[in-house]
Design goal:
Helix content is 81%, strand content 0%. By secondary structure, the chain is mainly alpha-helical. Helix 1 packs antiparallel against helix 2.
Length: 227
């Protein structure tokens, strides 16, 4: 097998692994913010979070070292350092003792935004290899993000939204434009999120349909040329 093909496969595998890791990290942070866990479950989540943070930090350092303009790369990708900040129970207790507990909430939001940025960058990079998988990853990203936002907006005013999974069910029904109507937004902000998610669902459905049609057409063309 040519070296270029091996390099391409290695790059695709590495990009896919980083996309998957970024997606898992975002899911963990969303669950950490929107759900209740036991002490043992929190310890497991913290262990995963610290591991992921170390991977992000290692990738950032390696990318800086390999970059031709190291200072520029370090400056333009500063958000990756924020994504590498682990927030454990020990950190929370320390900041609470220093009366900086609000800083923990700010760090959680900033870290979540930073990991979303990493996920977006990795998805774009992976999209260079396979468009369909990138579309599916972006759809999953929008699904979890809208579910978390909807839960945070509606939890205190909507009797049908009591857990993050209620928000996930609503987001899944909305993004697929099924619209069962069992869970509806009660707040103005929740309705805005619903409209945006429905528009995104329509756009993604059209993109997927066009992508599948293009794939089938190219497959038929390749089959015709082989004859």
């Amino acid at each position: 097998m040519p070296r270029r093909a091996l390099t391409t496969r290695s790059t695709i595998s590495q990009d896919f692994a980083m996309v998957a890791l970024a997606l898992v990290s975002v899911m963990l942070l969303l669950f950490e913010v929107t759900a209740e866990f036991t002490v043992q479950q929190l310890r497991v989540i913290e262990a995963f979070d610290v591991t992921i943070a170390l991977v992000f930090l290692s990738e950032y350092i390696v990318s800086v070292v390999r970059s031709r303009d190291r200072w520029r790369y370090a400056w333009t990708h500063w958000y990756e350092l924020l994504a590498a900040i682990p927030i454990t129970s020990q950190t929370t207790q320390l900041l609470r003792g220093l009366r900086l507990f609000r800083l923990v909430r700010i760090l959680r939001v900033v870290r979540l935004a930073a990991r979303f940025a990493i996920l977006y960058r990795q998805a774009r990079q992976f999209a260079q290899h396979t468009r369909m998988v990138a579309i599916l990853l972006i759809s999953l990203l929008m699904l979890f993000l809208s579910a978390a936002i909807f839960y945070l907006l509606e939890a205190n005013s909507n009797p049908h939204v009591t857990t993050f999974f209620d928000g996930m069910w609503w987001a899944l029904v909305t993004i697929t434009t099924v619209g069962y109507g069992d869970v509806v937004p009660m707040t103005g902000a929740g309705r805005v999120v619903a409209v945006l998610l429905m528009l995104f669902g329509i756009a993604i459905l059209g993109t997927l349909t066009a992508g599948i049609a293009s794939y089938v057409w190219h497959a038929k063309e390749r089959s015709r040329r082989k004859r």
